[in-house]
């Protein structure tokens, strides 16, 4: 699955300890993490600079010591707002805080969070206690001292308590939750279909027929869910795969363009430069020059 896919399965280093904490250092302003979603809850903590986190198309400006909570199954992307920004991403599976035997806490709180029956406010600012607990989680994870797993789990529980007490935005009805889940499943099926068939024409009409909907509804729902047009997404998947061929094959640029679904080599070159800021032929020369140096 390419990095153009909107659904993301986060990399968890230890499946028996389903949490990942990563320091993310950005160099220049601009898009850092394209639109995506996952079932995991994600907590972003800015320690230097500023990021813009777009959750369901709503921009959230986060600065030093701000926290952004990305709910389970929430479409989001991250843009670096200041050069040299540093933030931490804490990502955990609901399994991390579930009991081995289902108890009242799981039924009342953990399962509803993972199913989006409970949705948190995205931005937490000026909350010294939340910041303190997040810093403790990061410190325990980085130091990995004795009993660090137990310490992290206890701090994650306390973060959830603070979020539930102070930052619960809404408790979704079962009907709304089902509707949202159904839409995400439909979108993911469409994305997988595009990923597996990008070398074919993939007209809006063909896709609408395949997924038993109208062209206007397909385009509208895709734009509403992702913030991108359907055509732009298809082109980005094709350019991603073309990029792999430019780096790893001896095919000509025209052959590559045709193999990934473009009907015109010149149009492909223009679109590639628009997306990448460099022509495909210039990029190939750059890759070749780099490989000769090594």
Written account of the structure:
By secondary structure, this protein is of the alpha+beta class. It folds into two domains: 153 residues, Regulatory protein AraC (Jelly Rolls, Sandwich), CATH 2.60.120.280; 118 residues, Arc Repressor Mutant, subunit A, CATH 1.10.10. The protein is 48% helix and 20% strand. Strands 1-8-3-6-10 form a five-stranded antiparallel sheet, with helices on one face. Helix 2 packs antiparallel against helix 3 and helix 5 crosses helix 6. The longest helix has 24 residues. The two termini are 28 Å apart. The model has no long low-confidence stretch (mean pLDDT 88).
Helical/strand content category = alpha+beta
Task: State the oligomer.
Answer: single chain
Number of strands: 11
Q: Describe the main β-sheet briefly.
A: 5 strands, antiparallel
CATH hierarchy class name of the largest domain: Mainly Beta
Order of strands across the main sheet: 1-8-3-6-10
CATH T-level fold name of the largest domain: Jelly Rolls
Shape, per Cα inertia axes: globular
CATH architecture of the largest domain: Sandwich
Mean pLDDT: 88
Poorly predicted runs are none
Count of distinct structural domains: 2
- The CATH homologous superfamily name of the largest domain equals Regulatory protein AraC
